[in-house]
Amino acid sequence: MKLKTQKIKSKDYVAVNERVRAFRSHPNFKDMSIETSIIDMSGDRVVMVAKVLDSEGLIRATGHAEEIKGKSGVNATSFIENCETSAVGRCLGFLGIGVDDSIATYEEVEQAIERQEELEKKPNNLPKKSKYDPLPNSSKIGELSGRHLEELNLDELKVVQKFCTTEYWKNAVAAEISIKKGDGIKQADLDWESDG
Q1: Taking Cα atoms as reference points, which of 75, 79, 104 lies closest to residue 9?
Q2: Pseudo-torsion of CA 139, 142, 148, 151, nearest 10°?
Q3: Mean pLDDT over residues 135-162, rounded?
C-alpha cells in the first residue's frame, strides 16, 4: 500500500492518519489492535504510550509521546488528544508502517518546527547557554552536581576542583577559577588533586 507523504525541508513524512489507515486496512494487521494509556499527567503536561497488540495480546510495537498544554493552537484545547495521536503515529512507525524516511510523523516534525520557531521569537524563554556541560552527578560534589561552572562561586569551584578526574573538567574548572579571580591562569590553578 502506497502511503501519502508530505514534505518538510525536502524530506517526506507520513501523517498519522495514513499510518492508521494502512494499519486498519492491510491484511497483515487484521488481528491486531491499538491500545493507548496515560503514563503521567502532571499540571499541563501529559505523557502517553500506544501499543500494538497481536491476537494473543503480545505487544508488537510501542510508541511514546509528550505534550504540554499550550496557550494557542491545538494544544490549547486538545493536548491530551494530540498526545494520543502522536503516540499512535510513533507506535505504528515502530511497527514498520510509513517509515521509508523517518519514524517521526509529519505532524510530529511540523509541531517540533513550530515550537522551535516560537522559542526563537522569545529569546528570554531560551535556556541559558553555557560554555561547559553541566557538572556530572557525583556524591563527592553533592548539591553542586548538575550545575554549570559559571553559576559557582570561587569556594564552590575549589570544591569541584578537588575531585576533577578528566582533562576536560580540570581545564574547565581552572579557566573558570581564573575568570572568577580576575587574573590569568596560574600554575597553582593547574596543580590538581585527584581521587583517581
Answers
A1: 104
A2: -160
A3: 78
Per the structure, the complete domain to which residue 164 belongs is given by: 142-190
**pLDDT at residue 115 greater than cutoff 90:** no
Whether residue 116 is found in the same domain as residue 158 = no
Amino acid identity at 86:
S
DSSP letters for 15-84: -HHHHHHHHHH-GGGTT-EEEEEEEEEETTEEEEEEEEE-TTS-EEEEEEEEEE--SSSHHHH-HHHHHH
Whole-angstrom distance, CA of residue 8 vs CA of residue 117: 15
Integer Cα distance of 135 and 142 in angstroms: 11
Q: Give strand pairing partners of 83.
A: none
Residue 136 in domain: no
Which residue type occupies 133? D
Given a cut of 60, whether residue 171 has pLDDT beyond it is yes
Residues 118 and 46 both lie in one domain: yes
Side chain identity, residue 103? I
34: which strand partners? 52
Same domain, 147 and 121: no
Q: 55: which residues sit within 8 A by CB, 6+ positions away?
A: 31, 32
Element counts in the chain: helices (H) and strands (E): 7, 5
Structural domain contains residue 133: no
Q: What's the first-to-final CA gap in the chain, in angstroms? A: 59
Average pLDDT over residues 170-191: 62
Strand-strand pairing, 59-68 and 11-14: unpaired
Shared domain check, 75 and 12: yes
